[in-house]
Amino acid sequence: MAKEDLAALDAHWRAANYLSVGQIYLMGNPLLTEPLRPEHIKPRLLGHWGTSPGLNLVHTHLNRVIKERDLDALCVWGPGHGGPAVLANAWLEGSYTQRYPAVTRDAEGMARLFRQFSFPGGVPSHVAPETPGSIHEGGELGYSLAHAYGAAFDNPGLVVACVIGDGEAETGPLAGSWHSNKFLDPVHDGAVLPILHLNGYKIANPTLLARLPDAELDALLKGYGHEPLYVAGDDPLTVHHTMAEAMDQALDRIAALQRAARSGGAHTRHRWPVIVLRTPKGWTGPRTVDGVPVENTWRSHQVPLSEVRENPGHLRQLEQWLRSYRPDELFDAEGGPTEDVLTCVPEGERRLGATPRANGGLLSRPLPLPPLERFAVTVDEPGATSHEPTRVAGELLAQVMADTARRRDFRVVGPDETESNRLGALYGATGKAWQERTLDTDEHLARDGRVMEVLSEHLCQGWLEGYTLTGRHGLFSCYEAFVHIVDSMVNQHIKWLKTSRSLPWRAPVPSLNYLLTSHVWRQDHNGFSHQDPGFVDHVLNKSPDVVRVYLPPDANTLLSVTEHVLDSRDYVNVVVAGKQPCFDWLSLDAARAHCARGAGVWEWAGTDDGTRDPDVVLACAGDVPTQEVLAAAGLLRELLPELAVRVVNVVDIARLMPREEHPHGMPDSEFDALFTRDRPVIFAYHGYPWLIHRLAYRRTGHANLHVRGYKEAGTTTTPFDMVVRNDLDRYRLVMDVIDRVPGLAVRATAVRQAMTDARTRHHAWIREHGTDLPEVADWTWPHTSGG
After folding, report:
1. Under CATH, which number does the domain 373-582 receive?
2. I want to staple 723 with a disulfide (CB 3.0 to 4.6 A). Which of 34, 126, 462, 729 is the partner?
3. Could you tell me how far CA 274 lies from the centroid of its own chain?
4. Locate the Xylulose 5-phosphate/Fructose 6-phosphate phosphoketolase N-terminal domain: which residues (predicted)?
């Protein structure tokens, strides 16, 4: 590389380093036009310096290759706590000013850039939604590489660089993410260029990969299926030269691999390049502070000089540090970057901070959703037929997959459970993504498949986050109990969406949709370890602007809900639905109306004729609780026909919340009309019963609310025994009605005793026969009298 080209790269890097330091420390005197004084320094010093020089180096060199090769590129910044670096580069290239016009590319704008960083009313210290060009919040480590691959899938012209910090490389999700290259189709997908940044230290300890012997690290990365390229050193010009060579070699290799695959001549999995970058932590910062080593140690991780306002020696050292970058060469008289600094910077949407790939809503297209009538089950009478709801929904998903075959912007992910969850119809439209060797006994594997199965919920979540944030659509199918593995990841995604909604320049992106099946009530065969419905509780703790939870009770309501969530934007949608045969309660038209309401009375199921208030309300949410409530309603109709029973089904669980707490919440007047203000409400709920109390605690009739649900009474047993063990069964519900309707306990003593006897008979039966009571197993809704 020519000397002048290296000088231009170095000028850009020094400018970015200067701006990074300034953001951590300065609230005045941005160009050092006068000696630093304590009042120029922020009162609270926050931020992370240690990783910033390395990130600035990567950004500088990505700029060069993007400009020279006219690349469509995106970068995922794994060390997201290096926010000063990414913000600095966005300001240098002008994309920051494009999004935030008040932060101009001059001395006044530089002062605003500095002051706002990690400052009240300003911007976070991490890479965040506020940062142009970002799709990745780096505050929690482990997900960068999965996000990068998610962005690359079905983006054949895109190169996604991914900087992986060596601290992040120690996490389980990141370790699993290296296997994503086995799912990358070089014909239809883009490329991911991992850049493993080994600066040697975390916040207080050395990092494992940085201390591995070179041969062992090389073997590890090759074992993951990569071809490593190494860049190391602490002399800037030498590192610039080596980094430029590595970038060119990596991109030449990617281009050659893609050409070979797209010409039809290559059918084996490729060995993709990875760059290993070794530079000192806190490079170019203070080498020692108060006689203690700082550069190239863990002490440079955050703020190397921590007493700048109080300690004159620290203040002098900070000024020397800032002036070491020679800012008078980097910024003109008005404070804007000089021509030398901008030599390597691309223009327009090629700038990393301006790429629409990182603002996926700009590129997103609505899914072609077919008419639901093509998939709906016929319901002439409630409960007269049964279907597996997820199998019915699978036909809809398969059609969407077929209809997006050419545009390739829809994927279904899950941990080895697509067929198990009755979504096998998808394989009529696409195969399972797979780049490894195949055997004659394999089924549905395809190099261009858009169903993605891997036994890592972290990978499924990360891929889908990267995919949706770059404007495409998808669904995550998972066993209900094990979606908890990504609790922390979904936290971060919800926070990202909530923040993005407040930024007018970020376009809404397709929602992240969960289909949770193999749920708590039908994990009787796998037992206690597979029984946990708490993901709904976890999600409903989060921002009501973003989260939605649906519990469709049958096949047609699941179709209606699936159509709704696939068509939505900027939400995390959780749909809980069973894969086992379930009674069909509602026709498609009735299901649509019911789902639109979110909660409503099923008049055909109760004995409440509307001429007087009901004696009791039987409410339900979830497919198994709905069946048990209807069975209880049938028993009450038969045994206590004088009782006025209202049956209420809830699909949208947030409807129980007040309108002030959630956009879907019911006003008090509507809630009282549905559940009454003073009558007992027996609520059979799919999950932990205290959630319903928490959602409804402010309602007038809350004192009358009695909730049955899962209470950690699980085991390997029969399906009906699961509900009996948790007191959610029909017999217990009838007993609850008798116990809570005033005056009924005396009149209905015999009925209550019969219900107790039925539970006792059940216990004896299953222990002898291993199956549920015939009266339960063969139960159907008495549609001749109720339909």
Report:
1. 3.40.50.970
2. 729
3. 26
4. 3-362
Pair 130, 162: CB distance under 8 Å: no
Tell whether the model's pLDDT for residue 395 goes beyond 60. yes
Helices (H), 656-773: 668-675, 689-696, 719-725, 730-740, 744-747, 749-769
**Per-domain residue ranges for the chain?**
3-355, 373-582, 599-786
635 three-state secondary structure = helix
User: Which residue's entry shows tokens 């980097």?
Assistant: 330
Matching fold, domains 3-355 and 599-786 = yes
Q: What is the pLDDT of residue 786?
A: 41
pLDDT bracket for residue 784 (50, 70, 90): low
Token pair belonging to 471: 């404007």
Residues 262-291 have a mean pLDDT of 91
Are β-strands 512-517 and 572-576 bridged in parallel, bridged antiparallel, or unpaired? parallel
- State the Cα–Cα distance between residues 42 and 50, nearest whole angstrom: 19
Residue 340, CB half-sphere, CA atoms under 13 Å: how many?
Answer: 18
Q: Dihedral angle at the C-alpha atoms of 135, 141, 142, 146, nearest 10 degrees?
A: 0
pLDDT at position 607: 92
| All residues at 6 or more sequence positions from 423 whose CB lies less than 8 Å from its CB, including other chains | 390, 391, 393, 394, 397, 412, 414, 477
Average pLDDT, the chain: 95
Tell me the pTM: 0.96
User: Which CATH number is 599-786 given?
Assistant: 3.40.50.920
